[in-house]
Specification:
Elements lengths: L1 E10 L2 E11 L4 E5 L6 H9 L6 E6 L2 E2 L14 E4 L11 H6 L7 H14 L15 H14 L4 E5 L7 H17 L3 E5 L12 E6 L2 E6 L1 H6 L4 H7 L2 E4 L2 E4 L3 E4 L4 E10 L4 E7 L2 E7 L8 E6 L2
Parallel strand pairs: 3-8, 3-9, 6-7, 7-8
Antiparallel strand pairs: 1-2, 1-4, 4-5, 9-10, 11-12, 13-17, 14-15, 14-17, 15-16
This protein binds adenosine-5'-diphosphate and magnesium ion.
């Protein structure tokens, strides 16, 4: 189990995190969300042991994570980190990058394991390619496979699918999280993409103003986002009489006490996203059809 206890951190005088406490059980995934600059990457680096912790503690089972003042080499065998800037060996093949830390004394094992991981990240046909000739997304997949190679007990992922195009993203995501579940690997994933969270994370924390402001299951946070910041993570929303509503929770009706004027409609796939003005504020709602600017309509809220 990962335990973060009352953790605070500052880069010299710039306080970034204040009094964070949370736990992640074996095999569970925790998503960390927050605006850019809210300290997500810093938190992962602290858990990894990249910095010395002056206030608070981080534990994995009964081992305390210590920083460079105590460890000659940063990091621990049981923990792997895929950072936002992944450092691979550019002039070496994909398979050699993945197998880098696997023992060469068991060549058959090594090959089997490398092939298994190539499959997880869907790079089988790139095995012999040099990493320098890969796209950003493909490099990210090599970094993920390499982190899994030595079967860590806990994996730290910093925006792990950010470079991967949408064609591949969903299947890769399923493949990685399935692998983590089957192998009971704990995971802390920092992300600004709701698709990394919904359907995959067991718990989620929201970093805001240096603190954990919300900690709950993704489902409960989605259903009761509490802050506009949190709602915005999941999609377009409106604040009406102090309540937060997602775009699909506002419905156009024949008549109601809420009258609004369309500003613009945006094609959104299954529906149109309608931006409108209500009580001199913007609201967003989903509608089956496009509505022309300046049209008036009535809507009701449903929760
Ligand atoms: P996030 O990953 O949520 O975008 P970061 O953890 O990268 O946030 O950054 C949090 C804050 O710490 C930001 O204000 C950033 O400018 C600052 N920061 C990040 N890394 C360093 C560093 N190595 N030295 C000094 N300040 C840093
Ligand atoms: Mg970051």
């Amino acid at each position: 189990m990962l335990q973060v206890k009352n953790l605070s951190f500052a880069y010299s005088t710039n306080q970034v995190l204040k009094g964070l406490s949370f736990e992640v059980n074996r095999g569970k995934t925790l998503a960390v969300i927050g605006e850019s600059g809210s300290g997500k990457s810093t938190l992962l680096k602290l858990i990894y042991g990249e910095f010395d912790i002056k206030k608070g503690e981080v534990w994995w089972d009964n081992k305390q994570i210590l920083g460079p003042a105590f460890n000659l080499v940063v990091g621990y065998d049981f923990m792997k980190f895929v950072a936002q800037e992944f450092d691979l060996m550019p002039y070496t093949s994909v398979e050699d990058n993945i197998g880098k830390f696997l023992s060469r004394f068991y060549p058959e094992e090594k090959e089997k394991r490398t092939n298994e991981l190539l499959k997880v990240v869907e790079l089988e046909s790139f095995a012999k390619k040099k990493v320098k000739n890969l796209s950003g997304g493909q490099k990210q997949r090599v970094a993920l496979a390499r982190a899994l190679a030595k079967e860590p007990e806990i994996l730290l992922l910093d925006e792990p699918f950010s470079h991967i195009d949408n064609f591949k993203k969903q299947s890769l995501r399923r493949s990685i999280y399935e692998y983590l579940k089957i192998n009971q690997i704990s995971c802390v994933v920092a992300t600004h993409d709701k698709n990394d969270v919904l359907g995959f994370a067991d718990e989620m924390i929201v970093l805001h103003k240096k603190e954990v402001v919300i900690k709950d299951s993704p489902e409960r946070i989605y259903n009761d986002p509490k802050l506009p910041l949190v709602a915005s993570f999941f999609g377009e929303f409106s604040v009406i009489e102090g309540q937060i509503y997602y775009a699909h929770q506002l419905k156009i009706v024949q008549r109601s006490e809420h009258k609004a004027v369309v500003k613009q409609s945006y094609f959104n796939g299954n529906t149109w996203l309608v931006q409108a003005i209500y009580n001199s504020e913007y609201i967003f709602l989903e509608h089956e059809f496009e509505i022309q600017p300046k049209s008036e309509f009535y809507f009701k809220v449903m929760k």
